[in-house]
Amino acid sequence: MALSTANSFSPSLSSKHASKQPELYTWFRSPNAIALKSPPLAPASIELKRNGGFVLGQYKVNCRIYASSAAPMMDQTVSKAPTIVEVDLGQRSYPIYIGSGLLDHPDLLQKHVQGKKVLVVTNNTVAPLYLDKVTDALTRGNPNISVENVILPDGENYKNMDTLMKVFDKAIESRLDRRCTFVALGGGVIGDMCGYAAASYLRGVNFIQIPTTVMAQVDSSVGGKTGINHRLGKNLIGAFYQPQCVLVDTDTLNTLPDRELASGLAEVIKYGLIRDAEFFEWQEQNMHKLMARDPRAFAYAIKRSCENKAEVVSLDEKESGLRATLNLGHTFGHAIETGFGYGQWLHGEAVAAGMVMAVDMSYRLGWIDDSIVKRVHNILQQAKLPTAPPDTMTVEMFKSIMAVDKKVADGLLRLILLKGPLGNCVFTGDYDRKALDDTLHAFCKS
Amino acid sequence: MALSTANSFSPSLSSKHASKQPELYTWFRSPNAIALKSPPLAPASIELKRNGGFVLGQYKVNCRIYASSAAPMMDQTVSKAPTIVEVDLGQRSYPIYIGSGLLDHPDLLQKHVQGKKVLVVTNNTVAPLYLDKVTDALTRGNPNISVENVILPDGENYKNMDTLMKVFDKAIESRLDRRCTFVALGGGVIGDMCGYAAASYLRGVNFIQIPTTVMAQVDSSVGGKTGINHRLGKNLIGAFYQPQCVLVDTDTLNTLPDRELASGLAEVIKYGLIRDAEFFEWQEQNMHKLMARDPRAFAYAIKRSCENKAEVVSLDEKESGLRATLNLGHTFGHAIETGFGYGQWLHGEAVAAGMVMAVDMSYRLGWIDDSIVKRVHNILQQAKLPTAPPDTMTVEMFKSIMAVDKKVADGLLRLILLKGPLGNCVFTGDYDRKALDDTLHAFCKS
C-alpha cells in the first residue's frame, strides 16, 4: 500500500527536563527547549517558560507557557497553597489549581463563577461524598448564588446522548440563562459530558472542572476535549470547549477505589513515554509510593502530568498534529472499550493494554529497542494495570472499530508510536501494515 | 422593578444606504457609515467596504466587510454569474454565492469540499427535487469524491436530538473521518441540524450550506448559528459554527410553496425594520413583485438581506450585543412556535406575529410613532403573513416560555424593540414591564 509522508508527523520531542536539579536562569535554546527559571525567594516553585515560535506541520505556532514546576518529591514539602499550572490559549487561557484541601477555599472557586446560577453535574457515586462540600464552597459568603444539581448514573456506559439530555432538561427546567456556570464534579465521564453540555447549552455557557479521579486530574479535565460516546465508537460526538478553571483538590483521591487510581496512572505513564523520559524514570523509582497513595508523590505526579498536558494543548488546541501524541495507546484502547462493552474495563485499563500494543508494534517496526518494551511492561505491572487486551477481542473487532477512529484521515489510520530513545514518539500513517497485523495477531486469539 | 442600564444596548443604527443611486467612491465617515465604491467596469456590481473600528459595548471590534451590492431592481439585469457576499470573520471568513443556476457550476461547490467523502443532509421534501442535482454537482469530473446522504423527515417538529442522531449514525456507519464535508441541502431546519451535527461530529468537521428556502437563503444559513429544539424551547441546544461557504441557487425557489415563501419574507422585512430603512421602503414598493416571484426582485432581496446579515455577524459573531438585534420578533415568535407546537406555524409566520407584538410594545413605550405601526401591519399583510399570535396562546404561555429565552440574563428578559425613526432598534432589558404586560394582554384572549 502506498503511503503518503504527508500523513507523518514527527515532532522530534526530546525529554523536556534536562536537569533533575533545576538551576536558576538556565536556558535551553533548541526548538523544544524550555527555560527553567527559579525565583530566588521561592525555591520550591519554579517557573517553566517557553518563548518564541514552534513550527508544527505547516503552521507556525506562537506559544508562551507559564507553569509552576518543582524539584522531584524528595526535595519537596507538601503545601496547602495551590500549585498553579496555566493553560495558555490566548483569550481562552485558564489556570489548573492543584493542592490539598482546595475545596475548603471558596474564593478560589467563586472567582471563576459567572452569573448567579450554577449547575453542578455529578454522579451517584461522587454526590454523597462531595456535593455538599462543593455546594458550600460555591455559596459560602455569597448568598446571591443559587446552586442546582443533576446526579447522573456512574460509569462509561452512561456517557451517551440519553444521559446528556438529563443535563439539558435540568438546566432548562431551572431556567439557567447564558450567564450561568456548569460545574463538572467527578471523573472523566462527568467532565466530558458536562463540558459538552456546557458547549451546547444555549450555544455555550461557562464551566468549571472539579476532577475527583486521577484520570480526570492528570488528563481528561485539562485541554477542552468534551463529548459523548456513540454505540459504534468512543467520543465520536463532542466539542473542543475550554473551562474557566480546573480545580484539583488532591484530598478527593482519599475516597478513590484502587482500580480507579491505577486507571489514572496509565495516563501518567503515557506522558513519560511520549515526551518526558525523566518523568518516566521518576515513576519507575516512585511507583510504589503512588500505589501506597503517598500524597507528596501524587501531588508531584499530578502537577507534572498537567504541565505536560498544558504545554501540548497550548501548542495544538484542536489536534492538528502534536496533540494527537497524547493518544498513545488510545486507538487500541478505545477499540477495547467499544468492543468489550463500555464500562467493562476502565478507560486507563484499556489504554494500558493499548500502550503495550503500540509499543509492541513500534518494536516490530524496529523503531525502539527491547529495553523500552520491558520497561513499559514492568511499570504497568507495578501499577497493577493490564498488559494485554481482554481474551474476547478479535483481530476483526480491532480493525472494524479502529476504522472509525478520529485519527483516520482519508481512509488511512494514523497511530501514535514510539520511535527513538525513551520519551520520543511519532504520529503517523506511514508504517508497514504488516507490523499492525502482526501486533493484532500476537495479542488476539482469533 | 429596578432595571440596570448595563442591560441596555443601543447601537444607534442608522439606515446604511444613504443613496438609492450609489455614486462612485462616495465615503460616509460616521461610525456606522459604509463606503460605497463602484468599479467603473462593472456597473451592476458595487463593492460595499467598511474599514476601521466600531465600538460595541465594552469591546472594540475591528471589521472589514466586502460585499457586492447593486442598484435597485429597476436598474438591474439578472446575470448567471454569482453575486458574492463575504462574511468577514478572520480565519473563519466565507463567501455567500447568490445566483440563478449555480448548482449547474460544479466548480463553485467542489472548491469548498475538503476530503474525499461528503455527507448530504436533506429531507424527504427536498431530496426528490435536488439531491441528484447536488450529488452530480459534487462529483462531476471528480471521481474521487464519494457522496453519502441521509434523508430526514421534513418539519420543525423533527428538529430534535432523535433526528440529529440519525445524522451521526449515518456518518459513523459510512466511516466518515475528520476530513469529510457535511452539506446541508434544505431549509432552516436542515441547515441548523446539519450545522450542529458538523460542529459535533468528531468534535468538528467542515460543512457547506445549500439553502433552498427564502428563510434559509436570507437568514438562517448565514452566520453560523446551529442547533436543535428542546421540548421546552427553540434552539436551546447548539453551537456557533461557521460553514465553508453558502451557495444560494435562486432557481430552487421555483419549487417552494407559497406559504414557505411568505415565511422567509418575514426575515427580509425584519432587516428593513432594524437597520435598513431604505430596504424597507424598497420592499413597500416591490412586495407585489416578490409575491409574484419576480426573479430579479428576489435576487435583490436575498442579496441585500445577506449583506445586512453578514455585516452584523462580522461585527458580533457570538451575539454579545449587536447580533441580538437580528432577533426582532423572535422572542415572541419562539414562544408561539414552542407553545402552539413545533411545525404548526412556520418560523417566519411566528416571527411576523412576534414583530407586530414587538412593534406594539415599542409604540406603547412611546419609542416609535404610529406610522411605523401601520406600515408594519401593511407590509406583513401584503406578504400574507400573520399579524397576531394564534388564539390558543395565553399571556401565561408567553411568559413561561419567554423565561427560558437565550436573551434572558440573570433573570432579566431583554428584548429587541424599535426606537426612533424607521430602521432603528435597541436590544434592552431596560423597559417598563407594564408595556410588555399590556402588549401580551392586547394580543391574548386570556
Automatic annotation (TrEMBL), chains A, B:
Alphabetical list of Pfam families matching this protein: DHQ_synthase, DHQS_C
Catalytic activity, as annotated: 7-phospho-2-dehydro-3-deoxy-D-arabino-heptonate = 3-dehydroquinate + phosphate
Alphabetically sorted, this entry's keywords are: Amino-acid biosynthesis, Aromatic amino acid biosynthesis, Lyase, Metal-binding, NAD
Q: What does the record give as its pathway?
A: Metabolic intermediate biosynthesis; chorismate biosynthesis; chorismate from D-erythrose 4-phosphate and phosphoenolpyruvate: step 2/7
Q: Does the keyword NAD apply?
A: yes
Instruction: Cite the EC number.
Output: 4.2.3.4
Principal location listed in the UniProt entry: plastid
Q: Which GO terms describe its biological process?
A: amino acid biosynthetic process; aromatic amino acid family biosynthetic process; chorismate biosynthetic process
SUPFAM superfamilies xrefs: Dehydroquinate synthase-like
Q: Which PANTHER family match?
A: 3-DEHYDROQUINATE SYNTHASE, 3-DEHYDROQUINATE SYNTHASE, CHLOROPLASTIC
Q: What does this protein do?
A: Catalyzes the second step in the shikimate pathway.
Record protein name field: 3-dehydroquinate synthase, chloroplastic
Task: Write down the species.
Answer: Citrus x changshan-huyou
Lineage start: Eukaryota, Viridiplantae, Streptophyta, Embryophyta, Tracheophyta
